[in-house]
Amino acid sequence: MSARLVHVGSAVVDYVYRIDALPTPGTEKTASSYARVAGGGFNMVVAASRAGMKVVFGGQLGTGPDGDFLRAAFAAEGIETLTPPSPVMDSGNCVAMISGDAERTFVSWPGAESQLTLDMMVPVEVTAGDWVFASGYTLSYPGSRDALADWIEALPADIPFVFDPTPVIAEIPRPILDRVLARTTWLSCNTDEAAEIAGAGDAQTVAIRLLAEHCPKAAGVVIRAGARGCLVRLAEGGTRAIPGFEVTAVDTNGAGDTHIGAFVSALSRGLSPYEAARYANAAAALSVTRHGGSSAPTDTEIEEFLALHDQAVIEHGEEQEATT
To answer: Which of 115, 139, 257, 297 has the fewest C-beta atoms under 10 angstroms from its C-beta?
Structure first.
């Protein structure tokens, strides 16, 4: 039986505006385009699913137009939602402004995903072979962090748990963060988030500290560095920088989610962590050439991209050799 990913993070509706540059205080900008799309944890779920992994969503969705929109988006991707809708509030949303240099600025409004209890999570059952994922967003909400931390700590020891602290890491109380890190099997974070946990330093030094001082049960950590790729540090001692791929970015929204989803999917199929990281780098590179946070490529697209890249490297090398 193929591995299944149980995602217990937060999904929200993104209201996306594209502008040439952020407005200065007191001024107004007219967007060149607008879209209403599923976002937040939805992006990672879609990335893992399109990369070939069976995925179910165990986060909390709301009752109202945004909750209905998210349920329809999950259904369109063939992803089952496990928990019943919140009876008291709608799902949250996020305004995302994408500037001309492909960078993003966000303003978010928490909804049903910010209110979580262990009773709500009763339908979220894990079985042998499952992988579980959670993000820092749910842990940053006062109304959900305790229940989710308790649920993560109660996971069976043989269930791999993947954690992404996200940019809101500073809003997670340190005792909660420490509890979740102590149960983490794979930590995936960007360089700023890694430094927030383990202090400043070069990527390898920070990765070593993450494993030695914060993630004692982890198999490894991945520190993402955008277009430069990522660094993988294994608990057994191996370290490798996995270079990124040169592409023309039009929208970096969701690139980190795509990277994590593709990485977990590749690991679950038996790829080595280094191979999985290269696969994830390719997925993220493809995603930034497309508009939208849930622009993750399929497994076929990723494999074709890697094959074309490898062929180009071979041809370039042969050409250099002939010239020499």
So the answer is: 115
Sequence-distant (≥ 6) Cβ neighbours of residue 24 within 8 angstroms? none
Q: Which residues contact 131 (CB under 8 A, 6 or more apart)?
A: 3, 4, 5, 6, 159, 160, 161, 162, 264, 268
The Cβ-side half-sphere exposure at 228, using a 13 Å CA radius, reads: 10
Q: Using one digit for the tens of pLDDT, what is the confidence trace for 206-216?
A: 999 999 999 99
Instruction: Name the CA dihedral angle for 37, 244, 212, 186, rounded to a multiple of 10 degrees.
Output: 40
Half-sphere exposure of 70 (CA within 13 A, CB side): 33
Phi-psi region of 85 (alpha: psi -120 to 50; beta: other; left: phi over 0): beta
Closest to 8 (Cα-Cα) out of 148, 110, 112: 148
CA angle 234, 235, 237 (to 5 degrees): 70
Can you tell me which residue has the tokens 């107004």?
A: 28
CB-based contact 222:230 (threshold 8 Å):
yes
What pLDDT sits at residue 91?
Answer: 97
C-alpha to C-alpha distance for 174 and 180, rounded to whole angstroms: 10
CATH among 2.30.110.10, 1.10.8.60, 3.20.20.70, 3.40.1190.20 for 4-22+31-323 = 3.40.1190.20
Which helix (H) or strand (E) segment holds residue 205: the answer is: helix 203-209
The alpha carbon of residue 53 and the mean position of all alpha carbons in its chain are separated, in whole angstroms, by 15
278/307 Cα distance (integer angstroms):
12
List, in sequence order, every residue forming a beta bridge with 98; answer none if it has no partner: 18, 104
As a whole number of angstroms, the distance between CA 259 and CA 230 comes to: 10
C-alpha Rg value of the chain to the nearest Å: 20
Nearest-angstrom CA–CA distance, 236 and 165: 23
The ranges assigned to domains in the chain are: 4-22+31-323
What is the pLDDT confidence band of residue 128, given thresholds at 50, 70 and 90?
A: very high
pTM of the model: 0.91
The Cα 23–Cα 43 span in angstroms is: 27
